[in-house]
Specification:
Nucleotidyltransferase, domain 5, 12 strands, about 325 residues, 10 helices, alpha/beta, five-stranded mixed beta sheet, homodimer
Amino acid sequence: MGEPMVLGIDLGGTHMRVAVVDSNGEILRLGKIHSNIHLGARQACLRLISECRMLMDEARSLGGSVFGIGMGVAGKIDRHRGEVVFSPNLPAMNGYLLGIELEKSLGLPVVMENDANAFGIGENWVGSGRGIANWVGVTLGTGVGGCLVFGGELWRGDDLGFVGEIGHMIVDPQGPSCACGLQGCLEAHSSAGSLMRAVEKAATDGLLSRGPLHDRWVKGALTAEGVYLSAKEGDLGARRLFHRMGWALGIALAGLFTVLGIRHAVIGGGVSAAWDEFIGPLRSSLAEHSSFLASEEMMVLRGALGDNAALLGAAKLAWKSLCEKEATSEIL
Amino acid sequence: MGEPMVLGIDLGGTHMRVAVVDSNGEILRLGKIHSNIHLGARQACLRLISECRMLMDEARSLGGSVFGIGMGVAGKIDRHRGEVVFSPNLPAMNGYLLGIELEKSLGLPVVMENDANAFGIGENWVGSGRGIANWVGVTLGTGVGGCLVFGGELWRGDDLGFVGEIGHMIVDPQGPSCACGLQGCLEAHSSAGSLMRAVEKAATDGLLSRGPLHDRWVKGALTAEGVYLSAKEGDLGARRLFHRMGWALGIALAGLFTVLGIRHAVIGGGVSAAWDEFIGPLRSSLAEHSSFLASEEMMVLRGALGDNAALLGAAKLAWKSLCEKEATSEIL
């Protein structure tokens, strides 16, 4: 049969990424294709199946054999039904039994997980969370996601279909409106979406002063990365936005550390690439909003796995599921 | 030897309460004396020892025998050293090895716990938290304390010497100053202390309009209970304060439900007597600040044990400790 391997999948709004992962969390092969979700769930699923088949061949060429699949999906997942319940970034997938389709087509067991939880499992396995019993995970992307690791295990709460949604903690009841409809959520201060909305608003209000940010705006080529580059180029408006991002993250994390009696957080996601612009304000805010811990006692770490965190977490779940089945079959 | 019993102690700034408690969480006898902490730690400790002796006699008169003592103390406790590390309400006790003194004098094992944690253990054992796997506990008193119950057990986090300190979550960064030195903590909105400070400030600023609250203020006889009675008598200023209390509690609990993926809270403490004045605003605020749960899915329960919650939780800890010792001795 060859060395056992699994596939780890990260299914995002823009890209699907599939990797062959061994039992040590080593990525042996990695493929990345456009999600093309606008073609509908069935088409996207077929593309994913074909990518998986290719990587299963690659595993064989490495002398291995794929025994299971783990998949992280941006959105609300029904893990037991293998269903994408609701995904704002993959709307065509809503209600689609993606896990079951993959199982049928590939003849392999599939486990699914929300991508922020998968991020947590990945960083816990072979990333910045390794060896830390209790920590808060934050993913900074279009939105702000999160997860909790307690006692070295992912926390699932009451299994209500959401958990770790730090992006929708209120950090300032008088703060900006959030995409979720509430006011003052962390996500309304600290996501790529909130950066873009803030620049839009400043421009519409005629408050976007001349500078790198204004230039990018005029060219109609503004992205979250562009806001970051503008900040690096010294644009004060852009720097203020990253300051606000760090300030809001500090309030949310200080509150969670205070209530949970813990002191570690791991931050990942695409926008964490702007680390040097927000980590200073974040640490100041954490100190300013904490009654019980001194600044140096609170550890805010950058995720170590970059874009591969969710994919590795999904792979870990596949390994875990295989081991549990193995244990059960030995008993039977 | 007679039926095994334990003593549960609640050591507060004003009163010490000691009870004989059986293994079902039934209070068989209860004594209450003034803490008289101004006489110093040693005197207060001697009074407590004498009260314990009296209740041990009572246990014997009931055909029982006391095997251990559990004690809830307002403040930061070193459980392993039996020390009151820091107690704002019992300043003379700071650094005092109260647990060890009690053990020596009474010849019984003593376990200590922070009073908000003891509240949680009590309500979990025989109160409103019974049978609920995951919940947030809040104690409304001079300050605001709290605890977390996860998987039916008290959560201790990283064992940093504090946990569940919901009173010092920031609910409004522009909010009022807190006794802890920060700005906008839950405690600065939702404690007896914050009620009193708000009335003081209104009076000093000449903004305390005529009415029951003003009358109580003029008489110099204002207490948190007086603010509550004024609200019941229709005083708008007093009602606004309880509205603010509920609003702030709603923000804090909504944030914790969202991140923890849970939906139950239990509220106790002396100020929870004003339940009918703050629960409506609390529930509105909870709905207004929650992205993931509808109003009817969130369960905010009133503690069932009143003043006896911490004392019963302390007794439960004593039982647990005795059972663990029993189990160990059986193995040895």
